[in-house]
Hints:
Helices cover about 5% and strands about 40% of the residues. With about 300 residues, it is mostly beta strands. The strands form two sheets. Strands 1, 2, 3, 10, 11, 12 and 13 form a seven-stranded antiparallel β-sheet that branches. Strands 4-5-8-7-6-9 form a six-stranded antiparallel β-barrel. It starts with 16 loop residues before the first strand and ends in an 8-residue tail after the last strand.
Amino acid sequence: MAIGSPKTAKAFIGTCEVRVGTLAQAGLLTSDHSVGYVDNVKLDIQSDTADLKAGFAPVLFDSAVTSTVTGFTGTLQESSRRNLNLLMSNGVADYDALSTDVGGTVANTSLTIGDNTGLHLVGPSGFTLAAGDMIVMYQVDDPSRMCICSVDTFTAPVSPAVYAVIDVSADTPFVGPASGSVAFAAGSTVKWYKAKVTSGGHDVYVPSYYSMQLIQLNRPTGRPVVFNFWKNFIVPSLSLTLGASDWSKFDMQVKSLRPYDLDYTDAASALYHVRDRIASRPIFEVLDIPDAVSV
């Protein structure tokens, strides 16, 4: 065997998949829980040590680990609401792709700037809006002309009309360029959608804890290698660059925690179903094939 020849087929290359769920889903995560495209995932187990040195010049006789921190970082590509909520400590939720997108066209586009009544919206059959719902209206050929309004009242279509009548809050009236009197250009096509709102900028971030999973493909064998992390804290942060030369990306920083005893020993606790695994693998586990398996 030549010097430096590989001993196993355990070399990694390529992106991995990062999955995030509730603590009760630890070890049970599926592709539904993926954050999507992710790059440059780096797992770190860092230890601080205290060295025992003596003599002159000092000679190292012993070294003791004084603290250990486990965590990982990654670069996310998809600015989904689910990912943004995770990064801003708003908790984990299902993707909005699993819910209905509500939107349509604005039937009366001659909306007077400063007014807030008599908006006519055409939408999906049977759609409804509630007070406080946020809607965004925009001119199709010039999306910079838009109105963001909070619904005040909603009246469903009355035959033969095909549009619902909405009054919006006086605090969010129709807006438009100062050079005109109407929000949208005459004869333009205007569409609307019900907006999903993501909260950000809390004075104090209430910590949210997640179970997480990293999956990497062992290319020579075609088998997945799985890292299960029982309890994790995603550091609240968001650095999003929007530019013309590259796709936007933002970083995620995760600290992997050792669960408290009450997190998994009580029958009603979220991690009770993995209690035996936590007892012997307290922060994370790696599921892989034996080193001796040949390709």
